[in-house]
Amino acid sequence: MTTNAFIQQLQAAVRRLQTVVETELQPLSNEALNFKARPDSWSVLECLEHLNRYSRYYNPAFAKALQSVGRPASVADIGYSWLGRKSLDIVRPGNGKPSKTVKHMNPAGSQLGRTVLNEFLLNQRELLRLLDQAAATDLNRKVVPVEFFRLLKLRLGEALEFVVLHETRHVQQAQRAAQLAQATAPVLVV
Predict the structure, then answer these.
(1) Is 45 in contact with 34 (CB distance < 8 Å)?
(2) What is the pLDDT of residues 70-96, one digit of tens each?
(3) How large is the average pLDDT for residues 137-147?
């Protein structure tokens, strides 16, 4: 896939995530946003806080990678390394395997409020701005250190796709948590 098509696909996915959060999750009550079906599951807000923690690392890392002078975007297809393919397979929304998160990225047990939703939407706007910038660079030549082990690096294109797939996976998890919260909400009989 060429750089332009790749960037457009990622931008469309980010816009869909924004829409889901604005239309399906923001209107929920505080109780629904914090509802957990099981003690070891995440609430809607925990899912989004997890993504906010990743954005706090990756958005500045993308900005730094895009800041350095490099070659302009090429018409070459986006390339993938072994590490990139493996990382993408792990976070792909269709991958039903649960995966452990590193401790500092795990929001379980946090006291969270609606500010998590606002921060998520701000992070998405910033990601869209970074994707606009990325359209003008060679995504195969620039690299971004992996958050949990910074000696490992992903190509910029791989890292951008990783973040968008990871966000998609956890927004879907948040939607499932919201559905469970609404299904178990007590019904007021008058």
Answers:
(1) yes
(2) 656 555 678 888 888 888 888 878 877
(3) 84
Q: What residue ranges in 48-156 does DSSP mark as E strands?
A: 143-146, 149-155
> Given the structure tokens 């939407």, which residue do they identify?
121
Nearest to 47 by CA among 158, 175, 187, 134: 175
Q: Which residue shows structure tokens 């990139």?
A: 84
Q: Which residue has the tokens 């393919």?
A: 85
Q: In terms of residue numbers, what domain contains 142?
A: 3-183
- Tell whether the model's pLDDT for residue 63 goes beyond 90: yes
Q: 139, 3 in Cβ contact below 8 A?
A: yes
CATH number at residue 141: 1.20.120
C-alpha of 84 from chain center: 16
Judge whether 188 lies within some domain.
no
Please state the pTM of the whole predicted model.
0.89
For residue 7, give Cα distances in angstroms to 31, 69, 78, 139, 143: 37, 19, 10, 10, 16
State residue 69's pLDDT score: 57
The tally of domains found in the chain comes to 1
Using alpha carbons, select from 165, 166, 167, 83 the residue that is nearest to residue 120: 167
Residue 159 in any domain: the answer is yes
Question: Tokens at residue 190, please?
Answer: 């008058």
